[in-house]
Design brief:
Number of strands: 5
Radius of gyration: 13 Å
Number of helices: 0
Order of helices and strands: EEEEE
Shape: globular
Distance between the termini: 15 Å
Mean pLDDT: 88
Strand content: 35-45%
Largest sheet: 5 strands, antiparallel
Protein backbone atom coordinates (compact mmCIF):
# COMPACT_ATOMS: atom_id res chain seq x y z
CA UNK A 1 0.00 0.00 0.00
CA UNK A 2 1.32 3.45 -0.91
CA UNK A 3 1.91 6.01 1.79
CA UNK A 4 0.18 9.38 1.75
CA UNK A 5 1.90 12.17 3.67
CA UNK A 6 -0.20 15.06 4.98
CA UNK A 7 1.31 18.23 6.45
CA UNK A 8 -0.65 21.09 7.97
CA UNK A 9 1.20 24.38 8.50
CA UNK A 10 -0.94 26.37 10.93
CA UNK A 11 1.30 29.45 10.69
CA UNK A 12 1.34 29.51 6.89
CA UNK A 13 -2.25 28.24 6.54
CA UNK A 14 -1.31 25.51 4.08
CA UNK A 15 -2.25 21.86 3.76
CA UNK A 16 0.23 19.78 1.76
CA UNK A 17 -0.50 16.23 0.62
CA UNK A 18 2.09 13.95 -1.03
CA UNK A 19 1.14 10.77 -2.92
CA UNK A 20 4.74 10.01 -3.85
CA UNK A 21 8.27 10.94 -2.81
CA UNK A 22 8.56 14.74 -2.38
CA UNK A 23 12.15 14.48 -3.68
CA UNK A 24 10.70 13.57 -7.10
CA UNK A 25 9.11 17.04 -7.46
CA UNK A 26 10.19 18.58 -10.75
CA UNK A 27 7.70 21.39 -11.37
CA UNK A 28 4.75 23.09 -9.67
CA UNK A 29 1.60 24.35 -11.35
CA UNK A 30 -0.78 26.76 -9.64
CA UNK A 31 -4.46 26.33 -10.40
CA UNK A 32 -6.98 29.15 -10.11
CA UNK A 33 -8.41 27.77 -6.86
CA UNK A 34 -5.51 28.41 -4.45
CA UNK A 35 -4.17 24.93 -5.14
CA UNK A 36 -0.63 24.15 -6.24
CA UNK A 37 0.00 20.83 -8.01
CA UNK A 38 3.42 19.27 -7.59
CA UNK A 39 4.48 17.10 -10.53
CA UNK A 40 7.33 14.74 -11.30
CA UNK A 41 9.48 14.93 -14.42
CA UNK A 42 6.94 12.97 -16.48
CA UNK A 43 4.15 15.42 -15.54
CA UNK A 44 2.38 13.06 -13.14
CA UNK A 45 0.84 14.77 -10.09
CA UNK A 46 2.64 13.54 -6.97
CA UNK A 47 1.16 15.99 -4.49
CA UNK A 48 -0.78 19.18 -3.95
CA UNK A 49 -0.83 22.15 -1.61
CA UNK A 50 -3.98 24.01 -0.58
CA UNK A 51 -3.25 27.65 0.20
CA UNK A 52 -5.22 29.62 2.82
CA UNK A 53 -6.34 26.41 4.53
CA UNK A 54 -7.69 26.80 8.06
CA UNK A 55 -9.17 24.34 10.53
CA UNK A 56 -12.39 25.45 12.22
CA UNK A 57 -11.71 23.87 15.61
CA UNK A 58 -8.64 23.88 17.81
CA UNK A 59 -8.87 20.12 18.38
CA UNK A 60 -7.03 17.46 16.43
CA UNK A 61 -7.62 17.38 12.69
CA UNK A 62 -9.11 14.10 11.45
CA UNK A 63 -8.45 12.85 7.95
CA UNK A 64 -10.22 9.92 6.29
CA UNK A 65 -8.94 8.08 3.22
CA UNK A 66 -10.78 5.73 0.93
CA UNK A 67 -9.11 3.44 -1.60
CA UNK A 68 -10.83 3.12 -4.96
CA UNK A 69 -9.99 0.26 -7.29
CA UNK A 70 -9.62 1.07 -10.97
Amino acid sequence: MAKVKVYYDQTGNTLTVWFDNPQAEYICEETGDEVVLMKDQSGRVIGFEKLNFTVASSGPMQIAFEAVSA
